[in-house]
Design brief:
- By secondary structure, the chain is an alpha+beta fold.
- The protein has two helices and nine strands.
- β2 and β3 form a beta hairpin.
Length: 163
C-alpha cells in the first residue's frame, strides 16, 4: 500500500480538532440553555419592577399635581393605565397615553398578570396626599416564577415580593 506523498492535498480534521469543537459547543450550550429557560422568570421580575415603579410614579404625580391619580388594571388583557380626572396621563418619556400593555410588547410574551385585588377591585386611586384608597396586590407570573406587588393601605408603600 502506498503512502500519500507529503505534498498531497488530502484534507481532514484531526481527532484533537474535533474534540476542541465539541468542547466549545458544550460550553456555549451550557451558557445559552439557562438563559433561554429563565426568560419567563426574567420577564416576570422585569414586569413586577415596572409595575411597582409605575404605581410609585402615579403616587408622586398625585402629590405633585394635587389631584387624584388612578391606576386601572385589566388582568385579562395583561395591561394597566394611569389616569386622572382629565383622562390618561402622558408618559414622561414618550408623551403618549400612559398605557402599559404587556401583550403588545414583544419582550413580555411569557408574562401573565395573574390577579389584581385592591380591596376586591381592580383599580388603585391615590389622593392628593399620595394615600391609596385601598391596599392590595398585583400578582405576576412568568415561567415558574411568581412575583407579587403589594401596596400598603394608608401609606402607599410598594413592595415586590416572591410569595
Amino acid at each position: 500500500m502506498a503512502r500519500p506523498e507529503a505534498n498531497s492535498h488530502m484534507k481532514a480534521f484531526t481527532l484533537l480538532e474535533l474534540m476542541v469543537v465539541v468542547v466549545i459547543m458544550a460550553i456555549t450550550g451550557a451558557m445559552i440553555v439557562p438563559m433561554i429557560a429563565g426568560a419567563g422568570e426574567m420577564q416576570a421580575l422585569s414586569a413586577a419592577r415596572i409595575i411597582a415603579t409605575d404605581i410609585q410614579y402615579a403616587q408622586n404625580v398625585a402629590i405633585t399635581m394635587q389631584t387624584p391619580v388612578t391606576v386601572q388594571f385589566d388582568a385579562s388583557a395583561d395591561k394597566y393605565t394611569l389616569s386622572n380626572a382629565s383622562g390618561p396621563l402622558k408618559h414622561p418619556m414618550t408623551n403618549k397615553d400612559y398605557v402599559m400593555d404587556f401583550q403588545t410588547r414583544g419582550d413580555f410574551e411569557q408574562l401573565d398578570l395573574a390577579s389584581v385585588s385592591f380591596d376586591g377591585g381592580d383599580s388603585l386611586i391615590f389622593d392628593e396626599l399620595g394615600s391609596p384608597d385601598a391596599g392590595g396586590s398585583v400578582t405576576v407570573l412568568g415561567g415558574s416564577q411568581t412575583y407579587r406587588i403589594d401596596v400598603t393601605s394608608v401609606t402607599g408603600t410598594v413592595n415586590v415580593v416572591t410569595p
